[in-house]
């Protein structure tokens, strides 16, 4: 499994548009808007991997 496809918070498929279809050049996350606090939950030395939409929605709620 490609690690870049797994959300660092829940280990589920993050459905990153760029990972799944690089030629498209778009991803849902461009429009979503991530509060910077969500990144505080991640280890500082983590690889740069997308957070999934589920975790973003849960974090905001
Ligand atoms: Zn997630």
Structural overview:
This protein is mainly alpha-helical and 61 residues long. It has one domain. Helix content is 33%, strand content 0%. It is globular, with a radius of gyration of 11 Å. The termini are far apart. The model has no long low-confidence stretch (mean pLDDT 84). Zinc ion (ZN) binds next to helix 4.
Total individual domains: 1
Give the topology string: H per helix, E per strand: HHHH
Cα-atom Rg, whole angstroms?
11 Å
Distance between the termini: 30 Å
Summed over residues and divided by their number, the pLDDT gives a mean of 84
Described by the principal axes of the CA atoms, the overall outline is globular
Number of helices: 4
> Into which percentage range does the β-strand content fall?
under 5%
Number of β-strand runs = 0
| Helical content class | 25-40%
Runs in which pLDDT lies below 50 for 5 or more consecutive residues are: none
Which structural class should the secondary elements be placed in? mainly alpha
List keywords for this structure.
61 residues, mainly alpha, globular, binds zinc ion
């Amino acid at each position: 499994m490609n690690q870049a496809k797994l959300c660092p918070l829940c280990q589920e498929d993050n459905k990153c548009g760029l990972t799944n279809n690089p030629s498209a050049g778009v991803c849902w996350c461009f429009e979503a808007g991530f509060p910077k606090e969500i990144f505080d939950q991640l280890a500082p030395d983590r690889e740069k991997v997308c957070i999934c939409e589920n975790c973003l929605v849960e974090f905001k709620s």
